[in-house]
Amino acid sequence: MIDLDGTIYRGNERIPEAKGFVERLQAANIPFLFLTNNTTRTPEMVCDFLASKHNIYVTPDHVYTPSMATASYLLRENHGDLSNKSIYIVGEIGLKKALLSTGIKLNEYDPDYVVVGLDYDLTYHKAELATLAIKRGAMFIGTNEDTNLPNERGQVPGAGSVIAFVERAVQREAFYIGKPRRPIMDAALDKMGLNAEDVVMVGDNYNTDIKAGINSGIAQLLVYTGISTPEYVAQQKIQPTHVVNSLADWEV
């Protein structure tokens, strides 16, 4: 399982060693899944972005997002039938497409679920609708806790910052799907058809990627190309299973 932001790229900025790492996996026929916390893109959009901006070629089957994991969670909780359920969504097309493809209906007033993710056009009105719906009894789901995202400009606000806005308003925490929580990890293992002991979680962020592995009994490989620094990681009680400065340092 491989993180994207900060591990394979930094926004539009390439991480040169990442392309070689993916190609080594492909050449060795080692199964891999890009396990991103980014809900703004569909898997097809992720593949197009990887190809056009980073010269990395994969198929949508290689991509798994909290959007997809949230859809799976809702279907599982409702025995595969969401036709009588409704939802209010704060987020981008990747999140909306995955959720609405389940057959669930949009509802701004009194939905069964409110799902909040990264929204590039976040407004007070959107947060207001989410807050009021949760206060009326909707289940509050957050896609992921990432407070920041690394891109070519620096550390920009992530979904966790958007969700925190609503959390403060409703005075309780969302139920989180994405890394480092278990729902996305369990769903990704199911998608890969593998057990936890057969997988390594590769990522740049100790608090999301590495903790996701720790929380799920999956080995971790931390690479210092994104958010976490050696100084920060050294202070953590539980150390990553493996640490490299570059993905070029990891033998496949």
Care to describe what's here?
The protein is built from nine helices and 14 strands. With 252 residues, it is of the alpha/beta class. The chain has a five-stranded parallel β-sheet with strand order 6-5-7-8-11, sandwiched between helices. It has a three-stranded parallel β-sheet with strand order 12-13-14, with helices on one face. α4 links the parallel β5 (86-90) and β6. It is globular and about 50 Å long. The two termini are 14 Å apart. The model has no long low-confidence stretch (mean pLDDT 96).
Strand percentage lies at 15-25%
Q: Determine the N-to-C terminus distance.
A: 14 Å
* Overall helicity: 25-40%
- Using the CA coordinates, give the radius of gyration: 18 Å
- Strand tally, please? 14
Counted by DSSP, the helix tally is 9
Order of helices and strands: EEHEHEHEHEEHEEEHEHEHEHE
Largest sheet: 5 strands, parallel
Strand order of the largest sheet: 6-5-7-8-11
Task: Note the topology.
Elements: E1 9-10, E2 13-14, H1 16-27, E3 34-35, H2 43-54, E4 63-64, H3 66-77, E5 86-90, H4 93-100, E6 105-106, E7 113-116, H5 124-135, E8 139-142, E9 148-151, E10 154-157, H6 159-170, E11 175-176, H7 182-192, E12 200-203, H8 206-216, E13 219-223, H9 230-234, E14 242-244
Helix pairs in contact: 3-4, 3-7, 5-6
Keywords:
252 residues; alpha/beta; five-stranded parallel beta sheet; three-stranded parallel beta sheet; 9 helices; 14 strands; globular
